User: Which sequence fits this backbone?
DNA sequence: TTAACAATTAAACGATTGTTTAATTGTTAT
DNA sequence: ATAACAATTAAACAATCGTTTAATTGTTAA
């Protein structure tokens, strides 16, 4: 690819484009970040990394309505980050036991720690 | 906090709420993820982690209009993830040399690798 | 001081996202 | 079967976000 301006580093920038992941790759990455781009959803996922709970209790812990909560649970489940099981009238949710889910859990705790160390004890 | 339902794990869930980071903490975390919640912005940040370029060349590399690009550069700069310097008529951007910027760079490459290993050579 | 180029800003528009309200499905106990 | 509770779904609404177009600011060279 020929760039409009040449500042002597064209070799670096132009070669970079060859090595660059496809937009689809970045799109998949951004979809994952989008999942965590909502404070309530991060909080919810963090909770489900630490305990398994039914929707009613989660709604109380999150201080949210159950429809709103269901909505977020839906996304997290569709992405494979969380799993659910029914027990009688209740449905229990918890984080999926996958390498990927674990990685995001740690990223969240890293980010929260870096962003506001005093907020995390 | 008293939960509506008791499944025997109340000690776990109720103690969790005490240890839980504040919503503000999660909000700061989600703001960071929101930054990367757009494919063009992830791609742009990734590029700026690997090279320093002027807006015109970045627009060519990103296949975007310069106003659209400026818009995204603004957010990334406001968050401290990238820095800029003017040289004559041109403004050059690159990733900030901080621990935090470096961490996100690696997270992106990890995520892209996990999400689509074949997309990254 | 103009003219030309680089970059940013502002306003308008369309698309997406999250919450609410109401209706519906699924399960258990009477 | 019916009543009560748990959870999900659907439709409507408000808010946010990204792109476009047009205007503006900043810099250099003629």
Assistant:
């Amino acid at each position: 690819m020929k760039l409009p301006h040449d500042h002597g580093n064209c070799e670096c920038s132009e070669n970079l484009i060859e090595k660059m992941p496809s937009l689809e790759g970045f799109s998949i990455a951004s979809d994952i970040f989008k999942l965590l781009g909502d404070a309530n959803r991060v909080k919810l996922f963090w909770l489900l990394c630490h305990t398994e709970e039914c929707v009613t209790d989660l709604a109380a812990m999150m201080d949210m309505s159950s429809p709103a909560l269901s909505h977020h649970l839906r996304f997290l489940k569709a992405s494979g980050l969380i799993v659910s099981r029914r027990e009688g009238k209740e449905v229990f949710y918890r984080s999926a036991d996958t390498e990927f889910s674990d990685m995001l859990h740690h990223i969240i705790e890293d980010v929260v720690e870096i962003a506001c160390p005093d907020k995390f004890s």
In short: Chain B touches chain A through 60 residues (CB under 8 Å).
